[in-house]
Structure of DUF2064 domain-containing protein:
Amino acid sequence: MNSKTAVLIFANSPEIDAQRKNIMRGEGLFKQLNADLIQKVKSSQLPYCIITNEMQKGQTFGERFYHAITDVFDLGFDQIITIGNDTPQLQTRHILKAQEALKQGKTSLGPSADGGFYILGIHKNTFEQLDFQNFSWQTSKLFSQITLAIEQLENDLLCFETFGDIDNVESLKYIQNFIHQIPAQIQGLISKIIKQFECLFFNLVLSDFGIRANIPFNKGSPRLH
């Protein structure tokens, strides 16, 4: 290994992501997000590991994430930059920025709009000092908890800009506000899913009033019967 730093991609399969985030017909989106993220990581020229749901160990998210990071450190790396597949605004430059921060002895953290984070660059000795498994994973408290814990270790912390991540259909609508930062193919898939959701919602509203609507997805205006 020529690098002391590895990138950890911690992500589920497209099918699991679509199911857990309740995004109907979202498998294609997450497949494209995975492919796009791998290309961005390759552009950084850093070694990387992908740990999907089939490889994860533990019952809770915190346990699975902890074991994934530990497994990569056990390969002999001193520093890890961990990212997920649900933040399409993430670019190669953010990975390289995290790498540079690590070289300077800093931890780096990118906050998500929902209170989590989308990137974490951390040294092995810092990671080992944190009560990592017991943070409030998948809650709005996560970013503030990790920030406080790192500050209590008196470590320098570099915070990135806030990005939106994909948790459900509503979060896709939020991410559309930053569509110019997202690859065109992913833009199209996000727009398609939102349109499908809006058509389905309109159908449900009409059915509540006893009106049956024939609304094929993405095929023009509805016709009432």
User: Anything to note?
Assistant: Strands lie at 5-10, 48-51, 79-83, 107-111, 117-123, 157-159, 213-214, 223-224. The chain has two domains: 5-159, 169-224. The first strand starts at residue 5 and ends at 10.
